[in-house]
Amino acid sequence: MIALLLALGSSLAYGCADFLGGLGARKAHVLRTVMIAAPASLTVELLLWPLLGAEFSPGALAWGAASGVASAAVFALLYRTLAIGPMNVLSPVTAMVSAALPVAVGLLQGEHLGSAALVGLPLALIAVVLVSAGHGAGSARPSRTALLLAFGAGGAIALQLVFLHQAPSDSGVAPLIIGRAVSSAVTLTAAGLLRHRLGTERPAYAMSVGAGALDSLANLLFLLAARSGDLAVVAVLTALYPAGTVLLARGVLAERIHRGQLVGLGAAAVAVGLLALA
């Protein structure tokens, strides 16, 4: 039960972080948003160090660094995806992709899913098709570029979660600190190399800081959940994060949700629930 609650908390934090990050990336180049979000996230994890401890073993360093590289890709791909929009379609697509790889890794490591998973996995794929298709000319239909970015972001998220799960269970927040330090270095270096292409728009500082802090909290809750439960179950529960993004996009941006997309979102929720029960 503790693992389930932690995973759901991680899901909520990820959804809110994605909304703020995507909205901030609409106001300035995505790297300007990431330049603020990544260091803000690292600051939160450094503040957690005295409270939760950290053991910087070779395993924690290696897997933390790997998760950091994946995290840098997540920041850039995901925020750019959500900046293009529509959030209420692309976020669920990213979630379904991000859930698939951790489930496979969990199964390969000896975790067992029941018969409900045999229904849940195909249903998840159907849900991806439904939420991506839109409805008619007036629907919120994503572009091909946006869909490709969404799949890339989902893959990067999956790798980040898998790498964090592989870190030693007694390493505390060390993998998070190392990972965020690496992702901050990568994004700041990229921003420096591309500084002439970033434009002159001022980033949304408050949104960017909020996105980074919430992302850090989400990573921490996921790490704690994965250490106390099965990766396959925790990953698919964490994949519920689009619910928060979609609701915020509907309430704040008034993005339309059509009937077919509602069916897809419902199917996604049922699929994730089945996988969790399994």
Secondary structure topology:
Layout: H1 2-24, H2 30-52, H3 58-84, H4 87-108, H5 115-133, H6 144-166, H7 174-193, H8 205-228, H9 231-238, H10 242-253, H11 259-277
Helix pairs in contact: 1-3, 1-8, 1-9, 1-10, 2-3, 2-7, 2-8, 3-4, 3-6, 3-7, 4-5, 4-6, 4-9, 4-10, 5-11, 8-9, 9-11
Structural class: mainly alpha
Q: Span between N and C termini?
A: 14 Å
Give the overall shape. Answer: globular
* Average pLDDT metric: 81
Radius of gyration: 18 Å
Helix tally equals 11
Proportion of residues in extended strands: under 5%
Instruction: Give me the strand/helix succession.
Output: HHHHHHHHHHH
| Number of distinct beta strands | 0
Multimeric state of these chains?
single chain
Strand count, sense and closure of the main sheet?
Answer: none
Runs with pLDDT <50, length 5+?
134-139
Q: Give the fraction of residues assigned to helices.
A: over 70%
What would you note in describing this structure?
59% of the residues are buried. The chain has helices at 2-24, 30-52, 58-84, 87-108, 115-133, 144-166, 174-193, 205-228, 231-238, 242-253, 259-277. Helix 3 packs across helix 7 and helix 9 packs antiparallel against helix 11 (259-277). The model is unreliable at 134-139 (pLDDT under 50). The protein is mainly alpha-helical. The two termini are 14 Å apart. Helix content is 79%, strand content 0%. The protein is built from eleven helices and no strands. The chain is globular and about 50 Å long.
